[in-house]
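Hi team,

Filling in the usual template for the complex we talked about on Friday. All components are listed, including any nucleic acid strands or ligand strings, so the model treats them as one assembly.

SUBMITTER: L.P.
PURPOSE: interface mapping
COMPONENTS: two
RESIDUES: 672
SEQUENCES:
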Amino acid sequence: MAPLLDVRNLETHFHTQDGVVKAVDNVSFYVNRGETLGIVGESGCGKSVTSLSIMRLIPSPPGKIAGGQIFFDGEDLLQANEQQMRHIRGNRIAMIFQDPMTSLNPVLTVGRQITESLELHLKLTKREALSRAGELLDMVGIPSASKRLDNYPHQFSGGMRQRVMIAMALACNPELLIADEPTTALDVTIQAQILELINRLKEELDMAVMIITHDLGVVAGMTDRVTVMYAGKVVEEAKTSELFENPRMPYTIGLLRSIPRLDEGRGRKLNPIRGLPPSLIDLPQLCPFSPRCDYVRDECLTKTPPLRSVAQDHRAACLFDITMETPLSVQQSEGVAA
Amino acid sequence: MSAYIIRRILWQIPVLLIVGMMTFGIAKMTPGGPFDTEPDRRQLSPAVEKILRQKFGMDLPFWRQFTRYMFFDWVENPKTGEPEFQWGAIGGNFGPTYASRGNRTVQQELFEERSGKPSRFYYSARLGIQALIFAVVLGIPMGVLAALRQNTIIDYLILFLSTFFVSLSTLIVGFLLVIVFAVNLKWFTVIPDWKDPIRPWILPTIALGSTSLGFITRLTRSSVLEVKRQDYIRTAQAKGLADQIVVWRHILKNALLPVVTVLGPLAAGLITGTLYTEIIFQVPGMGNLLVEAIAKRDYSMITSGALIFVFFLGVANLLVDMAYGAIDPRISYK
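RESULT (copied from the run log):
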């Protein structure tokens, strides 16, 4: 069966005074119906721009989708006109954002903010929409939900606001939910509750979820498959269990090594990935991760490694077969020590 | 809410008292007096001046003069010679004007009709309100339009015009309007005919409102630009709402908060501060009278002008704060 969402060779560029920023550079991935895909990467690697590109909400200017195709249920969203897009946004693809403190309109009641998409997409009357909004708030676990419809966002806590955001996103039973770092701005205890809620509702409503995060713990607990992004490119993709057991891209390996473990000895230092991600303006033709890579060799500086199949349903963008067990080269470890 | 309003109104009392006392004091301390004449003209005889000073209570100590103006006093009735109770400003009696040698009171000068013509206050207030409406009704849509069409020719044009109006001041815009529309195009008469209910008001309204128009336009534009890139606008777009609905329902209400805030002081200034416009367009309003009062050391008129300004500022600010509470649910008054 064809995937619900199929992104092919997506290119999203931002035109700035310093040059063209290729925020999303030839990115392809897919999401099947009922599946949860995780997109992982550090800040500025193009995760959020990818999701906004799918919604066609890239601020333009300066942003521009320069190429590629985004098939949603067989239809190319990049060919759709604005009216068709409006019919899809909030209705068939819904999105929740990172910061629930700023993502709700402060001068409208939460009831109004939920009913507006119900009235728009499902053509409900005001009264029907209001009672449905009450049910939705109840569904996301807000106590005495129907009484809180007249409240304003500032009368809710951060976790409750994210619940409101979820209720708003799920109002029209979307087929795909894009969650852009849904727990980053929340307390750790609330994070778990929100993830559990998303998981539960995904089962109940039978939707596909694309969860964007930099938190590998979230990925491990939530997703079926993972796409790792670095510097605007996909650098590894695999089933979640496969990726955690057998990472093949040095960047992914670095990410996994950097997670502190409870069972290791006290006083051990953290294992960060050294350096910073490259500027996305005028990336030279070399492996974008090479300046930070512990396994770098001369070939890495000659061309940009393409995604290649390294195992069943597992692709990685590295020229060499590197695994967790590959020893660090002597020269490189000296370099680190110095 | 009503408790809040009552408290705000009560707070006006000390403010008015302090402003009254300071203005009265400064006016009194200024060298010269209401009965001085230029050195080359016939001087008032010392005997007459003494009688006048007595008549206006200027021989009394300062605190007594002030309380007579502000609160009340027992004043000798010239006919019977008996002391008679008399209210001051708090009772609506703003005292005699020295310029008329006491024949007319300040409230008569400011608020009473003069041989069929409306009062001076009417002219100033109407002109101010019209200018405010002109500035708001044009300024807000222009600011919104410029922000929504940012970096297009429309934006640049609106930005240029509003900057032009803000920088030029009423004085220059007023003369420009007279030269272009009255002298050259002859659409209006240079000497206004105030029997006409509309025509003479148009140019002074534009002149007085122009600075505020530019100000409101620029403020609205920057405020809309600020709101436009908020996260909740992206949320609204992600719901699939049409652009007009996003603008009307989500952007405008948020963007107008800072605009509403400045309307209070702006309104008070427009209603009472119409001096240049009144001079250029020969409007028989209060502004001219109040400035002349300073030159003539007309103490009661000067202080009354200040009190009226502060009163309107307080009322306008209260109205704005209430409007603010109605627009922004995060603000509640207790």
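MY TAKE: The longest helix of chain A spans residues 188-205. Chain A touches chain B through 30 residues (CB under 8 Å).

Thanks, L.
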